[in-house]
């Protein structure tokens, strides 16, 4: 029994001695960034607390002052939940920070969240920088405001009792923080919505219910961002341990990033609603088609940047992401050159605007109405209602005849009269057609041509060249119909026949046989009456169409 007790005491004593020897074996090392930061943090741990050794990382101060600075640096890091991963700290004695235009022998521990705290090389050793030491008092006051010391002094002994390794006063502080945050949230939400409405009114004074609804939703995450900022400011004052602070601040940063993503997504929606309202007042419908494309682009951009920010919060190296994205983007671009060309073609179409939505265009072999311009292709509906998908890269290179930009629709045709038509009726027919063109409500009366232009293989050619006022294809066809019907009626009244390709065989006529040639009436009074009759009918028929 005594022997076992002796062995147990010997084992305990040996372990204590070994631990003390291990402590003593760890010496102050300032040879590189890793050694300096490790020295500082190790000698301020509860089981290896030697502040004098930790103070060696501070240069140019008395021992007492250096100890105070070293302790404050650690408390600020712990209060902000900044856990130092020593495996990522460089061990190179000549490590250079290459951020900026000049290279320095320095290492910033948390370049994004706490860039003020870093170590630098002075001589052959590494110390906390003079800037860090100069700013640490202010950083400490910002992290632990003056009222914390006052509260600590009035907390009774019972308030320091622990439950689940958390003191009671910390539980009370958490409860008060949540209550205060909720009250501030309700107030800030109304204030944010009021300010957003004022800004919207300054930008666009018209009332838009969709924009107001989006602004109301936008006020919610903005107020939450305000609450996150308050918690981020106040939470270190509760003086929790590093582990709790690390998880809490990670959650706060994730929430902050998510809220910002939501805010920017809603801002994109608000801007697109205002832009959509603006495009509705413009003549061009291509701008209307641009709205969903721009909306999708900026929405995707916000989501990608948001995901990029979230990855950095989890310790993913931003340089690696950028390099991977660059190489991956290059590989994708090389593998999908046609897609890239189409995207560039889309950009060129929206910049040059060679056509608008619902324009009638001729693009190579495709003729039809533009219905939609997408990221990759443009949809054109032909007259037979079939839809053509033309790649934007090809559409931006070929010649486009945009008939939708014409001031008028030109119509040109030839009317063929029989070769045996008398000159008087030819003149009367030409005059009558001119009068019909002038009386037509859909043709330009100041620009037209109706002339006897030549001799065809089987007919005397009367050229009819007119311009229709409406650019709509359907209205043009209706206008042609009215013009054609009026010309046919005129020819009937005048007794003029239209020719067609034929071969005439002339034989000697016998006295008792009648000839096959038509009998023409060239009485001037009858011709004038015929023209007036046709014009009167043409002017009075279809009064609804004449107002188009």
TrEMBL record:
Subcellular location: Cell membrane
The keyword Cell membrane appears for this protein: yes
InterPro entries: LSM_dom_sf (IPR010920), MS_channel_C (IPR049278), MscS_beta-dom_sf (IPR023408), MscS_channel_2nd (IPR006685), MscS_channel_C_sf (IPR011066), MscS_channel_TM-2 (IPR011014), YnaI-like (IPR045042)
Record's signal peptide: 1-18
Domain Mechanosensitive ion channel MscS: 338-402
UniProt topology in membrane: Multi-pass membrane protein
Domain Mechanosensitive ion channel MscS C-terminal: 413-497
Main location (coarse class): membrane
Keywords: Cell membrane, Membrane, Signal, Transmembrane, Transmembrane helix
SUPFAM superfamilies tied to this protein: Mechanosensitive channel protein MscS (YggB), C-terminal domain (SSF82689), Mechanosensitive channel protein MscS (YggB), transmembrane region (SSF82861), Sm-like ribonucleoproteins (SSF50182)
Transmembrane region(s): 168-188, 218-235, 247-268, 289-308, 314-335
PANTHER family referenced in this protein's UniProt entry, alphabetically: LOW CONDUCTANCE MECHANOSENSITIVE CHANNEL YNAI, OW CONDUCTANCE MECHANOSENSITIVE CHANNEL
Family the entry assigns: Belongs to the MscS (TC 1.A.23) family.
Full protein name: Mechanosensitive ion channel family protein
